Amino acid sequence: MSFVDDPGRFITEQLARLPEPPHRSLVVMTLREPTSGSAGYIGVERFRHEDLARTGHYLATSPILAHIRRWCAEYRPVAVAVVVVDDPLGTRFPRDEHRVLAARIRDQLTDLGVGRFAAWSVTGRDPGHPWASLFGSEHGLLPYAAPRGHSAADLPPDLMPDAGLAAEVAALVTVRGGDRELSRERLRLASMQVEAVRDEGVLSAAEVAELADALTDGLVRDSLYAFAVGAKGQRGQRLWALLVRALPAPHRTAAAMLCAVTAYVDGDRDRAAAAIGIAVADDPDNPTVQAMAAGIHRAVPVALLRAAISAGRASALQLGIDID
Length: 324
What we know:
This protein has about 325 residues and is an alpha+beta fold. The N and C termini lie far apart (about 50 Å). It is about 45% helix and about 15% strand. The longest helix is centred in the middle third of the chain and has 17 residues, at about 180-195. It contains 13 helices and eight strands.
């Protein structure tokens, strides 16, 4: 177990800060402990970037070790993290030579008095690439992480949060239980509101609160995701945007997902990225959100996205509602 609580997220966030995607590279970071806040957070002070291979296909071990030693001797960090970005060797990941290199870096940093050291290997910096510890068995896939510096000012105007309305809605939201008849009622409500606000309509706080309840229902969400990628999906764009603005977190997660999917299918990738960023910020550990974010980030074909979530059409039919 490393001293970084969530290695996958840490790696994703730090590699995203680099100006160019690293390849066949070793990224070294000097770290510091925070003066306040969660004990699991480690702040990054400095970056250094090294080419892994300078001659043919062999690791540039000696120059890498020398450069890192001089750098750390100058700045005297309390902790260091290393990320090796390289292709796997056949099916072997991480590569043995990367483990050996990490061990040699650790040994020389120990001589310099660096108290903590962590090292991982990845095959790329995009979401979905595998990561693995170079000192243990920890491994996983890189998640999507909202870009640093993301703020409301970066959002499309119709997705800007309305804090006053969201606070009013939060006081009204009541999540009811679930059964098939209630799911049918919820889906009918959502379908009706799609048409009611499609042109110039608005929603009251009470109506938004009713839709917040509807979006807690898995059958309803699956049905609406399928609707969003269907022939009439664009008809829902105004409603999803209104909900993103008016719903408090975490209730707006599903609305942001619907907004992202609809925009992506329509070819508006910037809007899709902005909307999925809201969903990730609200619920970063939700596997459905992460999967959708990774798909949008990696520009999966629209046909593949449609195939992945069109199963919700059957959910709607089970409730006796044709969403097409």
